[in-house]
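The passage that follows is intended for readers who have already worked through the single-chain material. We present the inputs for a multi-component assembly, then the predicted structure in tokenized form, and finally a short commentary. You are encouraged to pause after the input and sketch how you expect the pieces to fit together before reading on.
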Amino acid sequence: MESIKRALKFQGRDFIKSAGMFWLVLFIVNIGSYVSMYKFNRGFIGISVSGYGSIDGIDITLISVAAANLVPIIIFFIVYCYEMYYEYFPVAISFSVTRKDFYKSAVIYNLIASAVFALIQGILMKADLHLVQYLGQNTKSDFGIFNSGTDSIIFIVFSLFICFTVFASAMNLLSALNYKFGYRLWIVIALLGIPYSARTGIPFELIGRLFTERIGAAQFSLLAITAIACCAAGFLTVSGTNVKDRL
Amino acid sequence: MIEIRNLSKSYGKTKVLTDIFLNLEDNKIYGLLGRNGAGKTTLLNIVANQLKCDAGELKYDGEDIYENSKAVENICLVREKSIPVDDDKVKRIFDMAKTLYKDWDEEYKEYLVKEFSLNVKKKYRKLSRGNQTIVGLIIGLASRARLTIFDEPSLGLDAAYRYKFYDLLLEDAEKNPRAVIISTHLIDEVTNLFEEVIILKEEKVYLKGEVSNIVEKGYFLNGNYENILSVIKGKNIIHKEEFGASAVVGLFDLLDGEEKALLKSRNVEISPMPLQKLFVYLTENNSKKEGH
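Having made your guess, compare it with the prediction:
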């Protein structure tokens, strides 16, 4: 247990700093977007997500500033997972941490990151609804997996948490595979994966299903199974991975 | 403390270690010797959980080492190669080591930094090879791990810093006893540090024993070849240089007082063979029993 605590402390060294900086920048961008919306009375200035709808047969533009955070959050998870394997893994293993403890710690941090990000983003999504309306714009509230207008904040946070966890688990697996196999992984993906997915469309359909459908019991089971499968495959990958001297 | 049984490791079709048997005890300083490619680094990496062996057993206090936190947290390997960090400052590397090694001694680290005049504000990648080695040495010493392994600890170090390291290691081993394995090619410099040596040759442990017992058996005999042979018939000759009727013979065997007196009476000069020479002859030649 003590060794996992040390691995957690080690991996957490930069997590609070980097996640803090990330959200600080996002808050500034979000506030800037609301300010520009207020000042210029236009939703297109600043960073936002827009959609289209109609009221009484008149086409309208629907706007959400907070929803635009989802893309940077996805990028954060990609960078964070890659950093975990390309920066922290070699040092941790070289400094007497077992692969098992490192992996457990990485999964715990993915869960923590997913929970914290889901909580912040959930609150922002709810607040966005009122802020955009207050600024005289029509709010985009239907995001497939939840509706920020009609769903409770608990459901929104839960839905985001599940989706972030699945995405982080998949990225964790991809970065572990990439660290272990290097460029060979991309060759395999290019030679086998792309022709297969182009012919059958299965991976894209699955990804689409995972992150666009509203979370009910069946969808929750699918997401949970996906996350567990990614974590298990990641563990098998990491448990047989040695530290590389040159990346 | 460490028990190795039947351990083997290959890289593809290349066998590196075959059926290694070793016992390592607490609070001893071991020298691991072997020619380039003998498998020293591979063996050390396996002991330190960096690599998995293909076959055999590796135990720490009776428990398997591989992926066993209880064992691995007590082992510190200072690698021959650079620490795998990107763009970190030395200070940050020490902080990481402090977080990860359970018995880390921060005060001792500060002392070592001063002793080696290391600039901790510099980026690790920008350090000279010698200073990169010093970072590793400080981590190894300050880790206070029960088993500390130094793989080529003298790489890039000048003589003054090498001797400083040897002195610090001896001083610390006295105050805070622990097992240490040093793998090095500069054997003569560290002979006094070693309590036991392990020589790897042809994928196996060729020789393991107390330094004093091994060195005791190494002799150079200089004189008339026939006179030498008449006394050492049947003994293990590991080196021979002939100059006409004279020869210098390297012997790895025990000589009793009577044999020594006989050699001296026949004008044969007897001198002890340094460990480095002994190692070179043992690992390069197939020694043979003269006369058999």
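Commentary: Residues 287-292 of chain B have pLDDT under 50 and may be disordered. The longest strand of chain B covers residues 14-24. How closely did your sketch match?
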